[in-house]
Amino acid sequence: MDIIACIKRVPDTSEADVVKIDPSQKDIEKDRLAFKINDWDEYVLEAAVQLKEKLGGTLTAVTIGPKEWDEVLRRALAMGADSAIRIDQDVSADDPHIVAIILDKVIRRLPYDLVLFGAQSEDFGSGHLGAMVAEILGIPHATLVINLEAEEKKIHVQRELEAGTLQSYTIDLPALLTIHTGINQPRYISMGGIRRAMQKELQVMSLSDLGLSLDALTPMVKLEEMRLPPKGKEAELITGAPEETAGQLAKILKDAGIF
Amino acid sequence: MTLTNFRYGDVIHRCFRCGYCKFPINWMDVNNCPAYARFRMETYSCGGRLWLTRAWLEGEIEWSDHLADILYSCTACKNCEVKCPLSFNIDILNMMIAAKSEMVERGEIPSAAKEFLENIQRQGNPYGTSREKRDEWMEGTGIEAYQGQEYLYYVGCVGSYDTRGQETARLLGKVLQKAGVSFGVLGNDENCDGNEVRNLGEETLFEMLAEDNVAQFQGLGVQKIVTLSPHSYNAMKNDYPGFNGVFDVLHYTQLLQELIRNGGLDVSGGYNAKVTYHDPCFLGRWNEEYDAPRAILRAIPGVQFVEMARNRNGALCCGGGGGNFYLDLLGGSEDSPARRRVREACETGANVLAVACPNCLTMLEDAVKAEGLENKLTVRDISEIVGEACVIK
Amino acid sequence: MSSILVVAEHRNQTLADVSYQVLSKGRQLADQAQMELLAAVAGVDIDAYAKELTRWADRVIIVNNDQLEEPLAEPYQKLIAHLIREIRPGIVLMGHSSFAMDLVPSLSVELGIPLVTDCVDIFWQNGDILVTRSIYNGKANASYSFAQSETILITGRVGEFPVEEGQRQGWIEEIEFAFEEECDYKKFEGYLEVEAAGVDITQAEVLVSVGRGIKEKKNLEIVEELARVLGGVVSCSRPVVDYGWLPSERQVGLSGKTVQPKLYLGLGISGAFQHVVGMKGARMTVAINKDAKAPIFSVANYGIVDDVLKVVPALVNKISELKGRTE
Ligand SMILES: Cc1cc2nc3c(=O)[nH]c(=O)nc-3n(C[C@H](O)[C@H](O)[C@H](O)COP(=O)(O)OP(=O)(O)OC[C@H]3O[C@@H](n4cnc5c(N)ncnc54)[C@H](O)[C@@H]3O)c2cc1C
Ligand code: SF4
Ligand code: SF4
Fold first, then answer.
1. Which residue ranges in chain B fall short of pLDDT 50?
2. C281 to chain B: closest CA residue
């Protein structure tokens, strides 16, 4: 089975107070942040490697981003990907439509039975890139996949719906899936593995190599402004008898839209 | 899959399961391997791990989550190395680490170990807290950045991030200031020392950390280092020379002992308590420094010093080594080594349990709470006791 | 712009909550711009839904077709594409459900129309529609505008838009819709209900977290009650697991789970480093602890220094009161 895994790199924003807005108000301040592979994409790679170990075939990892994004491809190569392709273009804040068009062009050049995406990204989290690419490629898809079993010509998947319900499908290959966290336990990638993966080839392509130009790709959605969500930063002590403090707190929680 | 690439294949069979590796100095009990003490099963002793590793090597068993947990519950306390009667004892701990290395290379390690290592790769500390916050512990202390002072004060991850560890890091800084020691710190440019990374079997990551740290220290012209944590002390003293990083490395208790002896530090303020002392593995068994901390405690007026039954190279590990202050594979039971250890401390009648390591501090303090001994026993780092004795607020 | 179309979703004989939520928002946007609000619902035996929807929509379009009985992406994509081509609404609005996530991206590509998903706000500005999304796991907000397009596609985040009572009496229009061919490459095999027993605290938006300060296992009852009125889940510190009061999957911290909820309410938790390391990503932290010096207060946005066993019952009452007023 030939598999393509589309992955990305994101800033580590797990702590609440590390996110600050850049003066342009179109981005967050990134220069002091650490970066990592998108959480969902770790599960993508694990799922892909497990399929390859079981069924053979090839695994290609693809990303679109500047040079530093090689890091996530190296992880993929260390995990067992046969080849890796980076499209040298920063599209991280662009309309996913544009990203989908670029990925379609990359994927078409490669052999594939199965294309895997993360169900969403930790940064923008729109969760719609994968299914868009499937539609452009003209292949069936399933999003939010939490169980996956593959045969020669078809796959059985379960999607995770709300409130503990799963939805089962059988889908003919080729197909595209977006993978949800929890589908497997991603393995650790050792530094030794990453160092050895430095020897594997990593292909870099430009938009023009794909017959595209940024000018011709017009976004349909435009980012206007980024802001921090309003919140009382300082610790504020609420004092009084239990009735009073509870009343004040209830009001604060209501105003914050908690209930 | 069986274990391959194992460099101790020709000696590992020499373990004949005598079981000495889980004893303290004498034969008073059999619980001095912290992992064995916690689970009371031979598999969790050094000998048990060696037999499992050999079985894995010879294809009798396969890798499993359980096997990984058994290997990672070793705290690298070195009790076994000290107690094993056979000459191959110099390698037994390395054999267990080598088996972990194999798991690391395959990516099959306990999920907490995975987090631990990935956090260090990304943020230079096991907690995954931002690198930009590494210097928060020193706010308001007036401690300077290192720029050619006599000593580099290397704080380490626990001292930099753990709130309890931060208190000791600050106090040690103030003690050094009071004694007029010329020193500076690296602040946000400090990186993990790698000691636990090595014990977890992530050799290449350890090499990278060691190489980077050595290059950084040399670039700044560092010659003398004083560390808060015995873990950092161990890595810098014993491993960094292998990366061309030869420095004059001291654990802070060694420096304080010297300062007290030569009159550089006045501890006449005293400390009124009955104190017992827990030897940290990376100061004690790993580096055979048993005297400096004791000498400090004895030098402080008011301190009534008592030994626990198990002490010096027979001390029971707190259970925090080998990354277990994070992995916590030994927690959650009355038999957890830290809880056994604080009960033992209580038996001496001491009201203060002195430690010389921020890991031991967090482990044992937590155990005091879990045992409900808060009213009988307080855990204090020696830096804090000295701080009080030289009247630092 | 002509009209706003809300596509309603139903399963197990109930209309999804989020459909009511985006319907209310749709009503508001339509009123502000004096547009017509349409709702669409499809499947079999859908008259009751349609009637329900007329309370908000000016016109409800119903499509009786057994292939549309289950919320499945492929048939619905065909239906909605057809409706958009026929009706030409300015905005199509859906709840950001797992159903919509499977459906709207392909729909937007098929029709070549813009899409923004999982919006927390939708509003008019100088005659244009703008949306706000919550990004970086709630740590920042971003607003977006749309390029010129006859129709735009928006999904709204679950729970973000309050349901306002519908005052309309719209009319119902049935539309004939038949599928040209069956979808043979993707076969729906059914549903599976997984054990509800395993609570995933990492997914919860609201965590009511208890520590040793709740003293006894039986005090968990009132805490569960608080979690229920807040629509949240109970999590805990390690001693609570050690005592066997809650299972280990509820533990937050270094050796437990790392959580990033919208609200973290710490009850009788001291805030030890090993605990805080697991919840420092929370967007709002409130602590109730009787010790004013407890370190948890230094990471909290709001704090009450008092006995949890006194404050929690009062809090349950106050919240129920406030909720009663709006519902
Ligand atoms: C290796 C290791 C890993 C650990 N991992 C974790 C982990 O993953 N998660 C975790 O939580 N801990 C962990 N710990 C334990 C941690 O160090 C703390 O011991 C623990 O978090 C304390 O839990 P607590 O706050 O519930 O209890 P305590 O620290 O005992 O705090 C109880 C609090 O309740 C307050 N209180 C008491 N009665 C009342 C009342 N009636 N009303 C209001 N307040 C009251 C007290 O003032 C006190 O502040 C770990 C420890 C170690 C060593
Ligand atoms: S190093 Fe310590 S924990 Fe590990 S096997 Fe030896 S005695 Fe046990
Ligand atoms: S490791 Fe040494 S002490 Fe332990 S059982 Fe084997 S031979 Fe005996």
1. none
2. B129
C251: its two tokens: 């533990």
Contact across the interface for A259 and C231, Cβ inside 8 Å: yes
Residue B281 Cβ contacting ligand 2 at under 6 Å: no
Identify the CA nearest to C61 among candidates C20, C109, C4, C22.
C4
Q: Within a 10 A sphere around the Cβ of A108, how many other Cβ atoms?
A: 11
Q: Which residues in chain C are closer than 8 Å to A173, comparing Cβ atoms?
A: none
Is the CB of A164 less than 8 angstroms away from the CB of C196? yes
Classified as helix, coil or strand, B332 is coil
Q: Which atom of ligand 3 is nearest to the CA of B19?
A: 5
C247 cis-preceded (ω within 30 degrees of 0): no
Question: Do residues C185 and C49 lie in contact, with contact meaning Cβ atoms separated by under 8 Å?
Answer: no
In this structure, is residue B57 part of a structural domain?
Answer: yes
ipTM (interface predicted TM): 0.90
The CATH superfamily assigned to A2-216 is: HUPs (3.40.50.620)
- The verdict on B275 and B344 lying in the same domain is yes
Q: What is the pLDDT of residue B3?
A: 64
- Termini Cα distance of chain B: 58
Residues B388, B270: Cα–Cα separation, whole Å: 7
pTM of the model: 0.89
Query: Is B161 in the C-facing interface, judged by CB distances under 8 Å?
Result: yes
Task: Among B8, B16, B22, B25, say which to mutate for ligand 3: greatest number of ligand atoms within 8 Å of CB.
Answer: B16
Q: So what's the pLDDT on residue C105? A: 97
Q: How far is A209 from chain B (nearest CA, A)?
A: 33
Instruction: Please give the distance, rounded to the nearest whole angstrom, from the Cα atom of residue B75 to the centre of ligand 3.
Output: 17
Tens of pLDDT along C36-57?
999 999 999 999 999 999 999 9
Torsion angle of C-alpha atoms B367, B368, B373, B374, degrees rounded to 10? -150
Share of chain C above pLDDT 70, in %: 98
Question: What count of residues does chain C have?
Answer: 327
A181 phi and psi angles, rounded to 5 deg: -65, 150
Q: Which residues of A touch C323 (CB under 8 A)?
A: 259
The C-alpha atoms of residue B229 and residue B159 are separated, in whole angstroms, by 8
Q: Are C169 and C53 in contact (CB under 8 A)?
A: no
- Sorted by sequence, the CB contacts under 8 Å of residue C197 that are 6+ apart come out as none
- The residue length of chain A stands at 259
Q: How many domains does chain B have?
A: 3
Provide the domain limits for residue B341: 266-389
Residue recorded with tokens 């796991």: C137
Question: Looking at the partner chain, which of B127, B163, B370 has a beta carbon nearest the beta carbon of C242?
Answer: B370
Rounded Cα–Cα distance for residues A42 and A8 (Å): 10
The CATH label, of 3.40.50.12160, 1.10.3210.10, 3.30.365.10, 3.40.50.620, for the domain at C3-174 is 3.40.50.620
